[in-house]
């Protein structure tokens, strides 16, 4: 088999598209704004992932990814930093229905920023973490209000008022 690692990337992309399509099945399809339902975008992304994955598999089987430069160095993967970012994603998914969109997305921002800063060799003092929390709150709160108040979508909130 030629380029098995490259084929695995394509197969993984196809599998991710399949998982997204499986999730899109459970989203209601009633037409909303502009005549499209809430499941339109997940179906569109699932199809795009499947097409891109198929293309990647084809590329890998017909000579490998073309014009792919060799890595400049042999820097090992930084698993500790990836763990911070992954923890943010997983905790966001786990906590979004318990603490609401705003707080779970703020936590995601804080943990992802920490992981990225550590990957660049930067120190992450407590003051920087608190500033990241404020920035995450300043991003997630307006996004929540835009989706819930302006677009009428339902996102999990912390309170029943609909403002946080």
Which descriptors apply to this entry?
flat, mainly alpha, single chain, 0% strand, 164 residues
Describe this structure in words.
It is a single chain. By secondary structure, this protein is mainly alpha-helical. The protein has helices at residues 4-24, 40-61, 79-99, 101-119, 126-150. The radius of gyration is 20 Å and the shape is flat.
Write a compact overview of the structure shown.
The protein has 164 residues and is mainly α.
Secondary-structure content class: mainly alpha
Which strand-content bin applies to the residues?
under 5%
Largest sheet: none
Q: Order of SSEs, N→C? A: HHHHH
Q: Helical amount among residues, as a percent range? A: 55-70%
Overall pLDDT level? 86
Question: Would you identify the regions where 5 or more consecutive residues have pLDDT less than 50?
Answer: none
Quote the distance from N terminus to C terminus.
53 Å
Which value, in Å, is the CA radius of gyration? 20 Å
Shape label = flat
List the helices and strands and how they pair.
Elements: H1 4-24, H2 40-61, H3 79-99, H4 101-119, H5 126-150
